[in-house]
Design brief:
about 80 residues; alpha+beta; 2 domains; two-stranded antiparallel sheet; two-stranded antiparallel ribbon; elongated
Length: about 80
Amino acid sequence: MPEPGSEALWHGSRVKPGMTPWFDGQSRSEENAMTDAQMGLVVATPAIIVMALLLYRMGVLQKGGVAAAIMMSLAIAVLLFLEQ
């Protein structure tokens, strides 16, 4: 078992300190890795859009409400995703 801070072998490639091993054996810098908040935005935004479309199909929302929900959720997601 390698000691913390030392190089470790991960699927045939070297993983250096400050690097995160990925499922395919490639290493990416932790600075480039997607944060939990960004991953949540990637999951939640499509869910909001799908829910708005379903509510429109059920007759609960009008077209303007669907458009507003989609545009606002996309704007918030882009703003927060890039701000992270």
